[in-house]
């Protein structure tokens, strides 16, 4: 059997179907449900773009969403997911269909009610996830062009995190948590050193990049090479910066619930030296 058999059409863009390999599935595709009736067969080769939700839990969630959401939004999100997949060459976690549909439907509803939703981690998101941010710009732009709703830059940041979640197979709460952690660490650096790091500066970009990769190393349990002489030199030359770096690693350790190797403090000290005021350098 090389065809889908329609069990139920939820709307023009979503059907419940029996798939030859996956059993009952939710199939999302532009116009796939148009004029379809229960029992109809759809040759697999005739379906140009198809996104199949095979997880039973994901299916049930999406079935509920599909009947509540504007069909045009479902079609647009299909285009967005297809674009992301093509641009990145990545097999996205299928949950992105549910996450983006739910998130963007709510964002559009808020926009219609003139309810603003500030994104406190916009700068960090843009700097840490530049590719995802660019893809999110495309997504928000497409919604603006096709639905006439301008969701604004704050939403670009939120959507970028959802895209990263789908690309890395990490739950959105973990992705958001790491972004919050980086923002909190930068805030502590500014407070302890009594400085304001310009958000468009190279030093800010370097610090965020280092913190991001440090968190990734800690999450994966990777150890950075220890250089004992350099570590001792940094302690002696920059005791205040080293102490702050140590404090930052302890915060990461607690928030990530993972051990942090001591060498991280040394590498972080060097990055803090770039943003520290002259009297501490």
Automatic annotation (TrEMBL):
The keyword Repeat appears for this protein: yes
Keywords for the protein's UniProt record, in alphabetical order: Repeat
Q: Which residues form a coiled coil?
A: none
Which superkingdom is the protein from? Bacteria
Q: Which residue intervals define the domain PRD in the entry?
A: 68-173, 174-281
Query: Of which family is this protein a member?
Result: Belongs to the transcriptional antiterminator BglG family. GlcT subfamily.
Protein name from the UniProt record: PRD domain-containing protein
Organism annotation:
Paenibacillus haidiansis
């Amino acid at each position: 059997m090389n065809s889908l058999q329609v069990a139920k059409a939820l709307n023009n863009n979503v059907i419940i179907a029996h798939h030859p390999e996956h059993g009952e599935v939710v199939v999302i595709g532009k116009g796939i449900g148009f004029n379809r009736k229960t029992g109809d067969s759809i040759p697999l080769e005739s379906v140009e773009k198809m996104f199949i939700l095979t997880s039973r839990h994901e299916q049930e969630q999406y079935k509920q969403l599909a009947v509540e959401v504007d069909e045009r939004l479902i079609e647009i999100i299909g285009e967005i997911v297809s674009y992301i997949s093509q641009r990145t060459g990545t097999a996205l976690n299928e949950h992105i269909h549910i996450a983006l549909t739910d998130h963007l439907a709510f964002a559009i509803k808020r926009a219609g009610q003139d309810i603003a939703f500030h994104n406190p981690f916009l700068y960090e998101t843009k700097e840490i996830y530049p590719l995802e941010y660019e893809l999110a710009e495309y997504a928000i732009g497409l919604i603006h062009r096709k639905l006439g709703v301008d969701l604004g830059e704050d939403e670009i940041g939120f959507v970028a995190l959802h895209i990263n979640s789908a690309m890395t197979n990490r739950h959105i709460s973990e992705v958001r948590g790491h972004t919050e952690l980086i923002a909190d660490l930068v805030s502590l650096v500014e407070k302890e050193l009594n400085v304001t790091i310009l958000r468009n500066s190279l030093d800010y970009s370097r610090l965020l990049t280092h913190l991001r990769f440090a968190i990734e190393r800690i999450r994966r349990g990777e150890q950075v090479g220890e250089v004992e002489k350099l570590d001792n030199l940094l302690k002696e030359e920059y005791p205040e910066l080293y102490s702050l770096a140590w404090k930052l690693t302890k915060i990461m350790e607690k928030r990530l619930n993972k051990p942090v190797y001591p060498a991280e403090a040394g590498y972080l000290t060097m990055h803090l030296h770039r943003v520290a005021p002259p009297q501490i350098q």
